[in-house]
Amino acid sequence: MTEIILKDDVEQSKIDALLSFLKSTNIDAEVKITNLNQVRHSSEFSLSSGIWKDYDIKAEELRNKAWKR
Question: Nearest 5°: phi and psi at 59?
């Protein structure tokens, strides 16, 4: 799956024209409207959890070690 993200508020007529063009070239396309704040929050969390997914690390242990220094 490939995503195209439109960053500004785009007029519906322009979105319809884009979808029409994509479908005319046999590209299956759909519009999905997402709240930008939700996208930023979820991508930040999944990035940080992905880095440590193979490690047995607990946040509370890290905090305790950090405060002892």
Answer: -60, -40
